[in-house]
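Support reply, case 0932

Customer input (verbatim):
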Amino acid sequence: MTILKNDTFIKALLRQPTPYTPVWIMRQAGRYLPEYNATRKRAGSFLGLAKNPGFATEVTLQPLERFPLDAAILFSDILTVPDAMGLGLYFAEGEGPKFERPLREEAAVNKLAVPDIGSTLRYVTDAVSQIRRALGGRVPLIGFSGSPYTLACYMIEGGGSADFRTIKTMLYERPDLLHRILDINAQSVIAYLNARIEAGAQAVMIFDTWGGSLPAAAYREFSLAYIQRIVAGLIKTCDGARVPNIVFTKGGGLWLEDIAATGCDAVGLDWTCDIGAARARVGGKVALQGNLDPMTLFAQPEAIRAQVAAVLASYGHGPGHVFNLGHGVSQFTNPDHVGALVEAVHEFSRPYHSGQAAH
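Our regenerated output:
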């Protein structure tokens, strides 16, 4: 068992005292980094990168070489699970992910099955093991998955969507079919995340990117209920250490109490929430992760520092905060601005953890 040299991220998720607020960034291994683009070019394609454990390890570690981040996140894609179900994932240039065989017909839905994670997604667990070895305990490694509803959006729409009319038509006309897809997705995600934990992931995150597009009652029935099942089914301790989990629903600020009640360790916030108000609502139950607007990083470093200070001040004193953006970093971001963000979090957060008055 590797001893973590920096466990502030894990401690913060468990609401234990830390010397400062830990920080990592959604999509931190990505196209804003020139070294990532160079590796991707060598890999030949996005999937060539994601499906090769050596390349996945390389790009996972790249942001840690550049910035003193407090966690690494496995380089992968949320759509590896439906790809393993045989839907034919591919990436169209400039259009993002697509599926060759979207789930539109009842027969296709009935044929859907939980994939054999050990064989179809072996490249992911191999990458986790390789990254853990390469990290050598420097910081914890995060594994992740899309939520059942978010995966279903891509599986039914056949790719990204502006209005989700295909999946929402199914939701209202044939909720039984959608529930079948979500049930298979939930079983798959539990097996997938647990395989990642067993391979070495020290925390896991569920990305519910499109849950916020649902009406309140539908969100609870078609997204949150399945997330709750996943949280209940996750391995909570591995190698004698707690493996915390984070649930992030983009646009989920209205439902923070419901999300916190799933049994998760931490709730991710997008940039539309006030983190201080969120803490007042659910901070006694869960840690909070977030929530700087990613567009802040297009401003000059002094402005970034001011916004970081504002988020930290809003959260206030004490443990239970993991600093992050409210969504993924934009590919057009200047890497130096990410460096300014990380430096500011570490510098400004210490007084909030030491009992001193905040500056």
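We compared this against your earlier run and they match. Two observations from our side: The chain is about 50% helix and 15% strand. Residues 175-199 form the longest helix (25 residues). Please reopen the case if you see a mismatch on your end.
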